[in-house]
């Protein structure tokens, strides 16, 4: 079953707002990946993290690998309409190198 | 470079019927994956091929699902017979080399999926 808890489940945002979402686990992870999925498409890799404490940016997106290795955060600054979609975290644990996925955070722009 | 190609885009079948999905990975990618994505959930790995050999099929319901990757390029995933709970998007992905698609040098590239509805 799911071993990653992703929150929030959905977010309504105004254009221009900053967005934060996170992913947590009760187990230690050694890799964290963040993907974005738009309707009718497959997930696209945004950021990959491989070390505890690592902070990596990709344009307006910034992700961090938590110090405890049990969580990761994704921030989007100054959101724009094309940011809408579902953001997934995924990772691998020490004991199992299979990629485990969260259930996603759906980002919706308020009209 | 051309992306991962999948067909068909949509398929509607009745329960107990059979269905097949096709995937053509990015040229030169040795590893191919089939994922099942149920609405509201993240993708779930069904099977992983390295060239034409199976690396991981631990989550494939083998009583009804089968997959092959002849010649180490294209792949087909078949469901026979289908059940209502098989309704999902079936995603194919490929990566340049082995592993689970999480390495910096060999990330996953997904196709746009096949949306299956079983009635």
Describe what is shown at a glance.
Chain A has no helices and eleven strands.
Report on this model:
The complex is a heterodimer of chains A (111) and B (119). Chain A is mainly beta. Chain A is built from no helices and eleven strands. The mean pLDDT of chain A is 93. With 119 residues, chain B is mostly beta strands. Chain B contains no helices and 13 strands. Chain B has strands spanning 5-7, 10-13, 19-24, 31-37, 44-50, 53-56, 65-68, 75-79, 88-95, 102-103, 106-107, 109-110, 114-118. In chain B, the strands form three sheets. In chain B, strands 2, 4, 5, 6, 9, 12 and 13 form a seven-stranded mixed beta sheet that branches. Chain B has a four-stranded antiparallel beta sheet with strand order 1-3-8-7, with no helix packed on it. In chain B, strand 7 (65-68) and strand 8 (75-79) form a beta hairpin. Chain B is globular and about 40 Å long. The mean pLDDT of chain B is 94. The interface between A and B is medium-sized, with 23 and 21 residues.
Low-confidence stretches of chain A: none
Class computed from helices, strands and strand pairing of chain A: mainly beta
Spatial gap, N to C terminus of chain B? 37 Å
CA radius of gyration of chain B is 13 Å
Residue-averaged pLDDT of chain B = 94
- Strand content of the residues of chain A, in percent? over 45%
In which range does the helix fraction of chain A lie?
A: under 10%
What is the subunit organization of this protein? heterodimer
Could you give a short account of the major beta sheet of chain A?
6 strands, mixed
- What is the succession of H and E elements of chain B? EEEEEEEEEEEEE
Number of beta strands of chain A: 11
Helix content of chain B: under 10%
